Amino acid sequence: QVQLVESGGGLVQAGGSLGLSCAASGRTFSTYAMAYVMVWFRQAPGKEREYVAGISWSGGRTNYADSVKGRFTISRDTAKNTVYLQMNSLKPEDTAVYYCAADPNGAARGIGDYRRSSYDYWGQGTQVTVSS
User: Fold this and answer.
1) Dist. CA 48–CA 34, nearest whole Å
2) How far apart are CA 89 and CA 34, in angstroms?
3) Could you report the per-residue pLDDT of 34-59, keeping only the tens digit for each?
4) CA 5 → CA 9, 89, 99, 108, distances in Å?
5) How many angstroms separate the Cα of 91 from the Cα of each of 4, 84, 103?
6) Of 26-30, 83-87, 113-117, the least confident
7) DSSP conformation class of 109
8) What tens digit of pLDDT does each residue of 62-105 get?
9) Is the dihedral of CA 13, 14, 17, 22 positive or negative?
């Protein structure tokens, strides 16, 4: 099993920045990490959960949704088993619960899979609120 724990959410004014972290643990992750793709999704009230960004554990290739491209940066620290999402130039429409997720078959599937069903492991989510 893999456990994902997000942190770093909060309240920020429009135009501000916020950083999220997702710590991964579990024997499965430690053994097969190089095959994983880690992603961030978000879900605003009354809306579907949507893909935000993804990164391959091996090589660190990245992919972004058009809505965040140029403003958000996903990265990972393989020594700490942690994925980050740096969010700049935040807008009120970025307000959502942000979830970290993992695809243990990501190396074969690729980093641009927007389907929620492709990700086997999910964190509990962290709230990000952007005030106007």
Assistant:
1) 29
2) 32
3) 889 999 999 999 999 999 999 999 98
4) 12, 25, 9, 25
5) 26, 19, 28
6) 26-30
7) H
8) 999 999 999 999 999 999 999 999 999 999 999 999 999 999 98
9) positive
Residue 54's φ and ψ, nearest 5 degrees, are -140, 155
> What is the residue whose two structure tokens read 């999704």?
41
Residue spans of beta strands (DSSP E) within 9-120: 10-13, 18-25, 37-43, 50-56, 62-64, 72-77, 82-87, 96-103
40, two tokens: 């961030």
- As a residue count, the chain comes to 132
Q: 12: which 2 tokens?
A: 């920020």
For residue 51, give the 3-state DSSP assignment. strand
Helix, strand, or coil here: 131? strand
Whether residue 87 contacts residue 20, with contact meaning beta carbons closer than 8 Å, is answered with yes
Rounded distance between C-alpha atoms, residue 37 and residue 106, angstroms: 5
Can you tell me the distance from the alpha carbon of 37 to that of 60, in angstroms, rounded to the nearest whole number?
Answer: 9
Q: HSE-up of 69 (CA within 13 Å, CB side)? A: 6
